[in-house]
Design brief:
This protein is α+β, with helices and mostly antiparallel strands. It has three domains: about 70 residues, 434 Repressor (Amino-terminal Domain) (Orthogonal Bundle); about 200 residues, Rossmann fold (3-Layer(aba) Sandwich), CATH 3.40.50.300; about 160 residues, Hypothetical Protein Pfu-838710-001. It has 15 helices and 14 strands. It has an eight-stranded antiparallel β-barrel with strand order 6-10-9-8-7-11-12-13. The protein has a five-stranded parallel sheet with strand order 2-3-1-4-5, sandwiched between helices. Helix 2 crosses helix 3, helix 6 crosses helix 12 and helix 8 packs across helix 9. The protein is globular, with a radius of gyration of 25 Å.
């Protein structure tokens, strides 16, 4: 199994502070090194956040720059790690991704992010002569495409980790799972095995996925092939590919679909709003509605192309404050991703939620601090994308007559487009008995 990935940053804060003092004084790195009696390589490492000077050197720096030693010590002791977030912008042909990339750059540069863009791999390959119709087979083309996609993302992540900045947003113009829309499941499994990875690992390595619906669905007058030489699809084919792309990403813990309601500008504004909401600008609010539903037909759900099944084990940890801290194992077919989540409720519908990815070893260590008054929650989750909204249906082994359906909203007044296939028993949003935290302590009886 592929080794767990978790981005960690250097201590950029102190490095930026040293560089600012040096530049204000008009020194080069070599001059500062000479005046402090160290090598210029040492100064470079300080400013890149790779190391810090000793206390004697800090005293000489204070004298040299004419600042209080306490001010330098405060910066020296205050370690901050870079936050790297990797998202995917996907969508059917002629969805507006190119324009969205420009909007994303402008919007998040203003919010203090360093924004990096991983260009669309398929367009690069096809424009360079590597295409399904020039390779030995579509499968061989997809192997090339997925491998190149993974290598590009790895290079961008490595570059980001060395940057002297607080927040990095890596934006992938399509991700690895986009390729699944152009293959059978069997072919996709072959590609994953050939690269030593699996579908769960590649899908859930991204922090969030934002799907822009093709103009062929709801804005046909805007559909065109003129702005991408690699695009050849008819509107009918574009709509079909759009559905397959949504199905490919269904199951990701944070998938959002941006449809064609309103003007194109409003669509772009919704993209920025969704990304900002996910990043927690200014706070990571989650707006969620929860319903008790009649036990669904699982065979019917599993047969749907826009539904994905995920196994979840959720364990609560000891929490010193009023909030909840949990760790979660999430995946399928023996392949798992691990998360740590801290939650604090604002009101019945809104709460602050902070989540980070864990390695398997970090997850196992966290379990040593489990809350022994709560039992682990085990459930099967069906992730369903329907009516351009993302529904999560949780099946608990203790229940045979009912289940829980959750839907996350972008704002408190958003309309829920209820799927006809589910029979609602009643809404349980805000009812503590149906929170996972309470259910871990006492599972409510079936109604």
């Amino acid at each position: 199994m592929k080794q767990d990935r978790k981005h960690r940053g250097n201590d950029y804060s102190f490095g930026n502070y040293v560089a600012a003092l040096r530049n204000q004084a008009g020194y080069t790195q070599r001059t500062l090194a000479y005046l402090l009696g160290v090598s210029d390589k040492a100064v470079s490492k300080w400013e890149n956040g790779k190391s810090k000077p000793g206390i004697d050197t800090l005293r000489r720096m204070a004298e040299l720059f004419g600042v209080p030693l306490e001010a330098i010590l405060q910066q020296w002791e205050e370690k901050k790690e870079m936050k790297i977030t990797k998202i995917v912008i996907t969508g059917g042909p002629c969805a507006g991704k190119t324009t969205a990339m420009s909007w994303i750059q402008n919007a998040f540069l203003r919010r203090g992010y360093t924004v990096l863009f991983v260009p669309e791999t398929a367009t690069e390959l096809i424009s360079g002569g590597v295409a399904p119709w020039t390779c030995a087979s579509n499968l061989e083309f997809q192997k090339c495409q997925v491998k190149l996609q993974m290598e590009k993302e790895k290079i961008f992540a490595q570059a980001a980790e060395g940057m002297a900045t607080e927040k990095v947003l890596i934006v992938c113009d399509r991700g690895v799972l986009d390729n699944k829309a152009y293959m059978t499941q069997e072919e996709f499994d072959i590609v994953m095995r050939s690269l030593g990875t699996n579908e769960v690992e590649e899908r859930d390595q991204y922090d969030a996925v934002f799907h822009m619906v093709t103009a062929a669905k709801g804005a046909l007058e805007a559909y065109t092939l003129a702005n991408n030489a690699a695009r050849t699809e008819t509107p009918e084919q574009a709509a079909e590919i759009d559905d397959k792309l949504i199905a490919a990403w269904t199951g990701h813990p944070h998938l959002r679909v941006i449809d064609n309601r309103g003007t194109f500008q409003q669509k772009l504004e919704r993209v920025i709003s969704e990304i900002a909401s996910f990043l927690g600008e200014p706070e990571p609010f989650e707006i969620e509605r929860k319903y008790l539903i009649e036990y669904p037909d699982l065979a019917e759900l599993e047969a749907l192309p826009n539904c994905s099944k995920v196994e979840i084990v959720q364990t609560y940890l000891k929490s010193p404050g009023k909030g909840e801290i949990r760790v979660r194992q999430r995946g399928q077919n023996g392949n798992y991703i691990y998360y740590r989540t801290e939650k604090r409720r604002i009101n019945a519908e809104k709460r602050v939620e902070i989540e980070e990815r864990l390695t398997q070893s970090e997850y196992l260590r966290a379990l040593m601090d489990m809350d022994t008054t709560a039992h682990p929650i085990r459930k099967t989750r069906y992730c369903l994308m329907e009516n351009n909204q993302y529904f999560e249906i949780d099946i608990y082994p203790e229940w045979k007559k009912q289940a829980i359906l959750e839907v996350e909203l972008t704002h408190e007044g958003e309309e829920i487009r209820w799927p006809d296939r589910f029979r609602m028993l009643r809404e349980v949003t805000g009812e503590e008995n149906y929170s996972n935290y309470c259910m871990a302590h006492t599972m409510p009886d079936e109604e």
